[in-house]
Amino acid sequence: MPTPVTSARQCLTPEAALALDEAVSVARRRAHAQTMSLHAVSALFSLPNSSLREACARARNSAYSPRLQFKALELSLSVSLDRIPAARPPVDEPPVSNSLMAAIKRSQANQRRHPENYHVYHQIQLQQQQLGSTVSCIKVELQHLILAMLDDPVVSRVFGEAGFRSCDIKMAVIRPLSRFIGYPRSRAPPPLFLSNLHKDATFGVGNLSYQFPAATGLLDGDVNHKRICEVLVKNKGRNPLLVGVCAYNALKSFTESLEQKTRSSLPVELSGITTICIENEVSKFVWKTRNDHELLKSRLEDIARMTDDSGGRRLIIDIGNLHNLTVEHSSVDSLNHIILQMTKLLAAHVGKLWLIGSVVSYEMYLKFVAKFPSIETDWDIQLLPITALRSSAAIDPYSKPYSLMESFIPFGGFFSTPDVKCSLRSIHPNISLSYQQETKSFEEVTTNLIGGPVSSVAGQHSSSLPSWLKVAELSTNNTSESFEKKNNQACLIPLVAGTPPTSHGFQFAEDKKKIAEYGSSDLTLVNPSSSLDFKLIPTVNNTVPPPVSTETNKGSLLSKLLDKPSMLQHFESTSFKSPDSKCMTRGSFDGHSSPSSATSVMTTLGLGMVSSPTHESTLKHIDMHFVSANATRIFPYHSSQQSSCSGSNSPGHHNYEKLKMVFRALSDRFPQQEEAISHISKILVCSRAAGEDRQAACPRGGIWLGFLGPDSHCKKKIAAAVAEILLGEHGNFVCVDLSSSQNTINGYTKEVRGKTVLDYIAEALSKNPFSVVFLENVDKADLLVRSTLSRATRTGKFLDSHGRDVSISNAIFFAASAFIIEDKHPLHLKEPTNADEMRILRVKGHAFRIIHGHISQGPKIVTEEQTPVNKRKLASRDVTALEKHEMFEVAKRAFKQASDSQFDLNLPANVDYDMDQEIDCYESHGEFHCQSRKLWLEDFMDSINETVEFQPFDFDRLADKLAKQMTDVLHDIVGSEHLLEIDNDVMDQILAVAYTSGNTCIVEDWIKSVLTKHLTEARSRFDLSFPSEIKLVTCDQIYAVELAPFLPPTIILS
Amino acid sequence: MGNILLEALNVRDINSTTTSSGAANTRKVLVLAHGFGTDQSAWQRILPYFTPTHRVILYDLVCAGSVNPDYFDFNRYTTLDSYVDDLLNILSALNVDRCVYVGHSVSAMIGILASIRRPDLFSKLVLVGASPRFLNDQDYHGGFEQEEIEKVFMAMEANYEAWVNGFAPLAVGADVPAAVREFSRTLFNMRPDISLFVSRTVFNSDLRGILGLVKVPCCIIQTAKDVSVPLAVANYLKNHLGGKNTVEILNTEGHLPHLSAPALLAQVLRRALSR
Question: Which H or E run includes B87?
Answer without folding.
Answer: helix B80-93
